[in-house]
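TOKENISED FOLD:
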Amino acid sequence: MNFRKKNERTFKYPGKRMAMDGNTAVIMCEREASDAAGAYPITPSTQMGEYWAEEMAKRHVNISDRALVFIEPESEHAAAAVTA
């Protein structure tokens, strides 16, 4: 048998391996790519609204160097209108 070492490649943006749930993964991507979020706290997306509000409170800026905006509507129908 012939065992060879895999070619070692270096990546410009290697990132970090992390274990997380889907809601956290979405927010970690969206906080960098989006300017605003509208979220109504309803299972299973409650965490996503909480995480977004938390990032906004920390004054996180996205890759466009813009501050995040968060809108929490008062009802499910208002949430549909805000995010449409």
About this structure: The chain has one domain: 22-83. Helices lie at 22-33, 46-57, 76-83. Residues 22-83 form one domain.
